[in-house]
Write a structure and sequence with these properties.
The chain is of the alpha/beta class. It folds into 2 domains: 4-116, Response regulator (Rossmann fold, 3-Layer(aba) Sandwich), CATH 3.40.50; 122-210, Orthogonal Bundle (Arc Repressor Mutant, subunit A). It is 38% helix and 21% strand. The protein contains 6 helices and 11 strands. It has a 5-stranded parallel beta sheet with strand order 2-1-3-4-5, covered by helices on one side. Strands 6-7-8-9 form a 4-stranded antiparallel beta sheet. Strands 10-11 form a two-stranded antiparallel ribbon. Strand 10 and strand 11 form a beta hairpin. The longest helix has 21 residues, at 97-117. 18% of the residues are buried.
């Protein structure tokens, strides 16, 4: 399945990309204020913005709605003015087709990796790559088992019983000793409280544990 590239560009840029699209190896989606709808945003892998169109208020309003997508800014000259936008990388023309394609693919790959390795949980970030739970400038280092436990509790909408946790993380039978869970959660709660003074990161009820 091809990655899709949402393009906010001038007519000249759109026409040029349309002529060479078979060489870019991307599905190209061109913004048109009369035809475009928000439904195309979730299917987009990355966004390319021509610096010459960034002053268009319709473009700016739509760009603000796009979340968690990598942004590429395209400029014709290195010293040309850059609009006041957040972007992840820049393409400065002239650039070869291979270089343009590689820049887009590398950006998508990097963003996908970062999204898979970091999870936003309340006001915290769980960084699986660094094995840390972070909040602002503070962090606590986690074990691999603690990361699995936090992920499981966060991904489940309802509280999870100790037996289910044992089965999913420790691969134990449902009738195994559940003191393992109690010990791990106690240590994890203590670690989080000592660093963040948060007693409610993991909660428990008669139905089980939850985040």
């Amino acid at each position: 399945m091809k990655n899709s590239l949402l393009i906010f560009g001038t007519k000249n840029l759109n026409d040029s990309l349309g002529e060479i699209k078979e060489y870019l190896n991307f599905t190209l989606l061109f913004y048109d204020k009369f035809l475009f709808s928000d439904i195309s945003i979730p299917t987009t892998s990355a966004v390319l913005i021509d610096s010459e169109i960034c002053n268009d208020p319709d473009v700016l309003n739509l760009i603000k709605k796009i979340k968690n997508k990598p942004f590429l800014l395209l400029k014709k000259y290195k010293m040309s003015n850059v609009p006041n936008l957040d972007y992840d990388d820049v393409i400065i023309l002239p650039l070869s087709l291979v270089e343009i394609s590689d820049k887009i693919k590398n950006l998508i790959t990097s963003r996908t990796y970062n999204q898979n390795s970091s999870i936003q949980i309340k006001e915290y970030v769980l960084d699986k790559n660094e094995r840390k739970l972070k909040r602002n400038s503070l962090f606590v280092t986690l074990t691999e088992r603690e990361i699995q436990l936090i992920e499981l509790l966060f991904n489940e909408k309802n509280p999870i019983s100790k037996n289910i946790i044992l089965k999913k993380i420790w691969k134990y039978a449902e009738d195994a000793d559940t003191h393992t869970i109690e010990t791990h959660i106690y240590r994890l709660r203590k670690k989080i409280f000592n660093k963040f003074k948060d007693e409610k990161f993991i909660t428990n009820s008669k139905s089980g544990y939850s985040i």
